Amino acid sequence: EAGVAQSPRYKIIEKRQSVAFWCNPISGHATLYWYQQILGQGPKLLIQFQNNGVVDDSQLPKDRFSAERLKGVDSTLKIQPAKLEDSAVYLCASSSLGGGRSSYEQYFGPGTRLTVT
Amino acid sequence: AQSVAQPEDQVNVAEGNPLTVKCTYSVSGNPYLFWYVQYPNRGLQFLLKYITGDNLVKGSYGFEAEFNKSQTSFHLKKPSALVSDSALYFCAVRGAGSARQLTFGSGTQLTVLP
Question: Residues A1-11: pLDDT tens digits?
Answer without folding.
Answer: 679 999 999 99
